Amino acid sequence: MRDLAAELAQRRAGDRYRSRRVLEGPQAPRQTVDGRSLLAFCSNDYLGLAAHPRLVAALKRGAERYGVGAGAAHLVNGHSRAHHALEEELAAFTGRERALLFSTGYMANLGVAQALLGRGDHLLQDRLNHASLIDAAAVCGARLRRYRHGDDQDLARCLAALEGDGREILVSTDGVFSMDGDLAPLPALAERAAAARAWLMVDDAHALGVLGATGAGTLEHLGLDARRVPVLMGTLGKALGTAGAFVAGSEALIETLIQSARTYIYTTAMPAPVAEAAREALRVLVDEPERRARLHAHVHRFRSGAAQLGLALMPSQTPIQPVLVGDAGRAVDLSRRLLQAGFLVPAIRPPTVPEGGARLRVTLSAAHDEDEVDRLLEALGGLHP
Ligand code: PMP
User: Fold this and answer.
1) Which residues form the Aminotransferase class I/classII large domain (predicted)?
2) Ligand 1 centre from 233 Cα, in Å?
């Protein structure tokens, strides 16, 4: 047996210890933690929907109609009218034939790879993809290759090396990269994938609700036709303020997932009231476009303020605005000092980001007000990160 206590002590000494904070109230910029009021810049609740009264009311109505637990997997007896309607609405929202709910984005990513690929097939991924996409390689047994971040030419080289191999190829990429906030070059990736007859999958967790005229995500933002990206994954726990995820695509793709994605088949469906709240979130997207406008105004405000302060920003036009620090110890120290000053801004270190790429990961939300963005800038300016 491993000496777990000793391993944990070592981890703590090496400054690699992960810990949680207990929140006493809803997800919001203002948090009370250990009796202290803090201003949080670390949530993925980009539109401030997680505690929106309309979502709360929809969840309550859902619970009254459906109860709480789904009671079974979708294919057994857990697929309610609420789930079914949400799937239809997500398909329409993303311009796809069909959509399929998964209980989490992590499971959706594992499920797609496992349903489409087998041993000996190929999974090509951007080097900075989210951990759940990378982990999918282990689940499906395909050979994993990682191409250089955002580099369609490197992808083309990887694809050329597989020419004539005759096996299935899945290329997967984040739409918006979760630690950098930049966008994948989807038109170029789509071209490369189509030329090699490979699947292209986009994980749009951080763009859904945020990018595009209607909030439909990276493809809408880039003006890319849905047919050029056969597999779209979106999550409901970020800008849509709820929980769970979906895959959208062709009728045949979705039926294939239902038949063979183990993370779909062998798990309990998300609670129906959550599906009702997610349906309400889609309606709020339409009714309150000012939330998206406000969010992008915050992004602009933060970037121009940070540029004036000489902070090392990354090329991101999204609510994910990392401030590059470099050294991991220094990033942790800065995050601690921000906490002392009343700001929650996490330090992100290797291995989550490349060696020498430690950063403060600032995320902005429509729930912030301008004054709060300015106060963060003031605090950052005082620390000279
Ligand atoms: N993909 C990306 C890019 C993510 O950032 C996340 C969550 N952080 C996931 C997938 C996983 O989604 P979920 O939290 O619903 O499991």
Assistant:
1) 38-380
2) 10
Respond yes or no on whether ipTM tops 0.95. Answer: yes
pTM: 0.96
- What is the per-residue pLDDT for 264? 98
Asked if 87 and 99 touch (Cβ cutoff 8 Å), the reply is yes
Q: All domains of the chain, ordered by start, with CATH?
A: 14-43+289-383 (3.90.1150.10), 53-287 (3.40.640.10)
Show the beta-strand stretches assigned E in 206-260: 231-235, 245-249
Active site (catalytic) residues:
178, 206, 238
Cα separation values, 100 from 54, 157, 237, 279, 355, Å: 24, 33, 15, 14, 37
Ligand 1 interacting residues, C-beta cut-off 6 A? 104-106, 109, 130, 132, 174, 178, 203, 205-206, 235, 237, 245
Binding-site residue ranges for substrate: 18, 130, 352
Taking each helix axis as running N to C, give the angle between helix 290-309 and helix 370-383, from 0 to 180 degrees, rounded to the nearest 10.
Answer: 20
State the amino acid at position 364 in one-letter form: L
Residue nearest to atom 14 of ligand 1 (CA): 105
C-alpha dist (Å) from residue 162 to 134, 145, 297, 356: 19, 11, 44, 32
Please report how the helices 105-116 and 251-260 are oriented relative to each other, as an axis angle in degrees rounded to 10: 100
At 63, which helix (H) or strand (E)? helix 53-66
Residues of the chain with pLDDT under 70: 385
Do 299 and 306 meet the contact criterion of CB atoms below 8 Å apart? no
Number of DSSP helices (H) and strands (E) in the chain, helices first:
14, 13
Atom of ligand 1 nearest to the CA of 236: 15
The confidence score (pLDDT) of residue 21 equals 85
Strand 245-249 with 347-348, pairing? unpaired
Three-state SS at 56? helix
Distance 174 CA to ligand 1 centre (A): 10
Structure tokens at 257: 């997932």
Coil vs helix vs strand at 143: strand
- Residue 24: per-residue pLDDT: 86
